[in-house]
Amino acid sequence: MDEDDVAPAMDDDQEQDVMKHPRKQQKVSLDDDGESGEDTAIPSRNRVGVYSDEEDESESEDEEMTEADKQFIVDDAEDEGEGSDTGGHQKRRKRKRKKKRAVSDSESDLDEDDLDLLEQNTGRKTFKRLRRKVDEDEDTAAKIFSDDEEDYNRSGDRERDLYDDDDLDDFIIDDEEGEGTEIDRAEKLAQRRKEKASLGQNLARNIGITDEQWRDVQFLFDYENDYGWALAPRADLDLADIEENDDDMMLARDKEVKLADVYEPTEIAEKLLTEKDEEIRVRDLPERMQLRGDIPPGETEELESEAKWIGRHFFERRNIRNMPLSREHPLIESIFRVLNFMRGENPQGERQFFEVPFIYQHRKDYIAGQLALADLWMIYDLDQQYLALESKKRSVQGLLGDVAALSEEATKDEYMKEVVAAASSLQEVTDVLQCIQLKYGEELARAEHSRKQVFKRSRRKTPYEVARKAGIGEFVKAFDCLISHVAKSSKNAIQGPEPHETPLEAAKKFVGGQFSTPEEVLSAARMMLVAEIAADPTFRAFVRRVYSSDSSVTVTPTKKGNVEIDPAHPYYPFKYLSDKYVFDFRDGQFLQILAAEEEGLITTEITIAAESEFFKDIHEKVTAPETNEYVKEWNDERRRAIEQACREILFPQIVKGQKEQLGLAAANFVADACRKSLEKRLNMAGYKRSGDDTDLDDWPMKVLAISWGDGEQQPAFSAMVKETGELLQWNRYERLRGMDPRGPDAESLIGTITRHKPDVIAIAGFKPNTKTVLYRALEEILQTAVAEGRLAKGIRIVFVEDDAARIYMNSRVGMREMPDSSFPPLVRYCVSLARRVQDPVTEFATLWNHQDDIMHLRLHPLQHLIPQDKLKSALEKAFVNVVNACGVDINFAAQHPHVAGTLQFVSGLGPRKAQAFITKIVRSGGKIDARSQLVKKGLCGKHVFMNCSSFIRIRSRHFADRYANLDVLDDTRIHPEDYDLARKMAADALDYDDATVEEEENPSMHVAELMESDDIEKLAHLALDDFAEELERRTNEKKKMVLDDIMQELMAPYAERRESFRAASESEIFTMLTNETDESLAEDSIHSVQIVRVSDRILKCRLQSGLDGLIHIRNVPLDRYRAESLQEAFREDTLVQAKVLRVEKDKMTVELSLRDVDPRRCNGAVPVDPRFDRHREEDYLAAQRNVQVRKSKNKQARIIQHPYFKQLDYRSVQQYLADKAVGSIVIRPSTQGNDHFAITWKVEEGVCQHIDVKELHKDNEWALGKTLVVADEKYHEIDQIVAEYIEPTRRRVQSLMAHPKFQKKDTQAMYKHVEEQCNSTRRSAYGFVLAMDKPGDFYLVYKHPQSRPFKDLVRVDHKGFWFRKKRFERVDDLLGYFKQDEARRAQSAQSRTRPPQPQPGQYPVGAGRAPPVGAGYPPHVPVPGGYGGSSYPART
């Protein structure tokens, strides 16, 4: 026990006060099902982010109390009348600590006596605002400007362990008035400094949140400056100064500070600290089930109906036909069992609430052979859809009942009741609702009015209601067109007698009111008939089925699409898609079709393949034999009404719904593909040495990770990570490239290896030189060290995929664990690589945080097109599957926060419950030694325990005596409900009788004996089949597969089910280092490459990805270049278009060719959809050629032979670049004549820079000039301008936009931002924004205290950053000059004899106080000629 853990003793008066107040009774909250809720933890006052969870009934609690608790708490006196013993020592009594139940329990509030006593023992006083004092004499640049990073680093101690114990540091006993000596002033100041330093910590204790969450909040806000005032003690206020009659002051003292008083509700919700989060955390139900909403109990009949509904989906997916949907079918029975496990009851009448992992692991006997793990998740999702469907049906049935109470016609409408009861999808329920709204719109309005009891508002009647009220509905019945019969039967739907008059003659009987002529009556009747046909639910379902089976999709590019969708465009494979049946869409392609349609690039048409046959069949069912002219006219009216209803109303609505369904199916496919991709990454065990037969309790391997990022003129870094995942040491190597294997950096590396003895070296990077240079250098260093005897043996070097490391290195979680002030980003990158080698699932789980870093993983090319909630749900399933397969060492997670992320994916848990688990375990000593303590210590209730217990491991390696009082079954996949079965099997294998087993102190002692002995194989000889049959007869539970699993677990407890560790493959390394894939570097694809070296027979090139390319002289058409050698035809640093011949991934090279590089000739090599119509494409190209020929006869257009050239003007080029990547370039004609052309490149979304290029020494008007001039600088080729002017400019623009001080705001918003920041910190604030009126340039917006905001222009070109007539190479150099220049201006202004006149809002000089910092700044006005001189390129 630390000295700080010991509480100060209480004096006599304090003890008497304690003994006066009896304990309050503890209450138990019930959940919605009437069952006892899970215990609520009380936020601890002694440990940050920890819950107090002790049981009142626990007899062992007295033994678990710390020494500090025993010294702080007074013992019970044997006789209440006894005050003290003869020795003057006070007797102390033990007081059991109370548990806090649900959030709603308010009966446990303390009275005033309790508060007074608590104040005496804790030293807590009222709170005051804490304002940061601004030193008025500080005027240097370092004190004027305060960066966010510096404020953050000063906000707290970043090196303190996340679970350090402060225990009773905050318990300070104040001296009674008139007693003791006066406290020394220095001690008071020290105490105030201590309170200020622990400000955030005190708040965390009062609220009960973890340190990790609290630091997230501190990271987002300047805690000390912005919000510290709300939580700081009022140092200038003494309780003794408060008068008893000062009610306001007493209220201020008693008011409790809450998170909502300090932080925004969105931030509180993000940290899962709302009251709703607390309810989820407390309630004894699996967290993921709670997030689904209310889970109604499932009766047997309801579950059977749902099982059939879900079974229909499975039958369709598995193509099962002609099979009855009943429980006799084994698949339906298995589905029913799963539903019963999820929300049904067991034979004892108790709700079960089992999650998917539990069912898959411990109820295998009910699903084996029928349902896989993915099928269980499908049932889990379909159950939620079914509940939503039933809820919608009940709402519609209630609505129909309301209408029936107001309409006699609706009361007799049995058809609507039958349809809504038979609805099997939300679409069908919506169809019924639309039909009700059409037929009974007026009654619905009246029912709504009576239900809401509000004043009736005027409502415009629909034409259908007007006609219905006029009695036209009776005339509609004469059409005898029962469209619902068409879908139900193949017979003719005409049931009435043969007509003896024409429709117009029959309409005369209904003339009157608004319909004064027979023609108007007939027109109104047609309108009503069309509306009823289109709204009939049965007919709509029939047409929907026709579309699902017989419709096809045709894509037509728009004018914009024809221009933009070229063979390299991702939408090209379906540009001319023709008649593709909807059932052929089995991947995510339709998501791209919807995206292209939204962008205005294509139009999509969905039609019935045989539409004429469809109408012919319908007409036959709604027309009567034409025996006379009257029948013919009535038949014509029916045909006209049906075709109008279908073409104008029904078909467009069905097509819209069909698109939604196809898009949903495509999104489900992509989401599932992302799940599989992530699960493949997770389902890999940590690295193990080959032939490693170590004990299963051994720690992971020690890993040394090395990287140099992109390797371009930057040092390499290494991180040595120990077995627990913590960073041991990191090193920086300045000269690792081509280094001497015996040089200083090599010696440092070998020293690290010798000292820490890593088991493996992990390597990764951003560019191909990681493999071609760094990997080879490391191999040489290690081989030399082994040869010289400095290393006993070689160490394996493995490439590791770095997708998680790239995210972690720049994530908030990574920067909080290893701040930028102490750790370079590449160190975080290396630490993440090492942890992934140790255990991939824990490292990926780190990315599952409040910032949703996991969503940045690239798992599928189309994942950006699906809703983020759907994607996150799919990824969560991947984590749940893998985490529950390998289990979670809960004590390890409690001791090491970076691995605690996996706990939330355990069955029954979630982020809220996992957080509570960790805090409670830490509060109770940092460990639990049995699964049963999950319940005994109040970590969870019965339902959560049943779900999670078998997936939580209690490992012996965390205890000094590895086997003391531990149950070996707690480190197996065996569920506690089956422990007796495991013990029975072990006793039978050892031939122990029941008496011998009962005498054991530990009930699983003989199990441990069996697992350690050579008799373990005897388990295989047990008659488990007979045992399972006996159990089923006695308990009516199937346990055959459970017994087999128990046997396997006893033989190999928690055996690894994941795949063995596998280093990155050649293909994965290639993609990681180049960002190129098989699709992007497909054979015959064309790329822009830069020539870096010219030799006699080979051109060495470099692709944009950094790959080396080789062009042999045989693949160069020298005659086209009018040259005899490569040296004559090419120069270094020029760009050319080359075609890919072959990719050698192991050598990181690409063989290229300059022959046949015309993109139009490569169209056939681009993979397209099988339904791609080449004839339509050829027709369009031929039509375009004819147009060009006709245009050329009238006007000759300027054409420049370059792949970037487009025949676009100023406006159309911006539209063209709208959806292109930042940095995309277009060369276009110039409006200044044929001796100019323009280069437009995309700076940012919505921002393009236009550069004018003047041509000199032209052979003719249409030829390209031999000399090209940009901003008074001469070039000889367009590619030279791109490489030497545009690319450097682009890199500088991107570097400035990547700077922390850049904000994506407009100028006015930036003014407001710096003003708010300046007012909150009382320091100068500044930042960069894009200059929208000067594309490619920026404004530096800044504000000093008591001055208005200003902006200065920052010009960017290929030479550097221009600011106030000076050029800078780096952004930080520019900012350094800016701060110094502002400091000089401030000093100059303060040295003037006459102070400047104050600006509006400034303090008047001479008003009895000194002016604040920044009051003397001179006004900032643009200097004429200061910016935009001749040294900058002209912009067009």
Kindly describe this structure.
It is a single chain. It is built from 55 helices and 29 strands. A five-stranded mixed sheet has the order 10-9-8-11-12, sandwiched between helices. α28 (537-550) crosses α32, α32 crosses α39 (868-886) and α35 packs across α37. A hairpin with a 7-residue loop joins β1 and β2 (51-52). With 1436 residues, it is an alpha+beta fold. The chain starts with 11 loop residues before the first helix and ends in a 46-residue tail after the last helix. The longest helix is centred in the middle third of the chain and has 54 residues, at 629-682.
Which key phrases capture this entry?
five-stranded mixed beta sheet; alpha+beta; 1436 residues; 43% helix; disordered C terminus; five-stranded mixed barrel
Draw up the topology in text.
Blueprint: H1 12-20, E1 42-43, E2 51-52, H2 61-64, H3 67-72, H4 112-122, E3 127-128, H5 141-144, H6 148-154, H7 185-197, H8 199-207, H9 211-220, H10 223-227, E4 232-233, H11 247-254, H12 265-270, H13 275-282, H14 287-291, H15 300-317, H16 330-343, H17 356-362, H18 373-404, H19 408-411, H20 414-422, H21 426-439, H22 441-452, H23 463-469, H24 472-477, H25 484-488, H26 503-507, H27 518-535, H28 537-550, E5 551-557, H29 559-564, E6 580-581, H30 589-598, E7 602-608, H31 611-622, H32 629-682, E8 703-707, E9 716-721, E10 727-733, H33 744-756, E11 760-763, H34 769-787, E12 797-799, H35 803-809, H36 812-817, H37 825-838, H38 840-846, H39 868-886, E13 888-889, H40 890-895, H41 911-923, H42 933-936, H43 942-948, E14 952-953, H44 979-989, H45 994-998, H46 1005-1012, H47 1024-1035, H48 1040-1051, H49 1066-1074, E15 1086-1094, E16 1098-1103, E17 1108-1112, H50 1126-1129, E18 1135-1144, E19 1149-1153, H51 1174-1194, H52 1210-1216, E20 1225-1229, E21 1236-1244, E22 1247-1256, E23 1267-1270, E24 1273-1275, H53 1278-1297, H54 1307-1321, E25 1325-1330, E26 1338-1343, ...
Parallel strand pairs: 8-11, 11-12, 13-14, 17-19
Antiparallel strand pairs: 1-2, 3-4, 5-6, 5-7, 8-9, 9-10, 15-16, 15-18, 16-17, 18-19, 20-21, 21-22, 22-23, 23-24, 25-26, 26-27, 27-28, 28-29
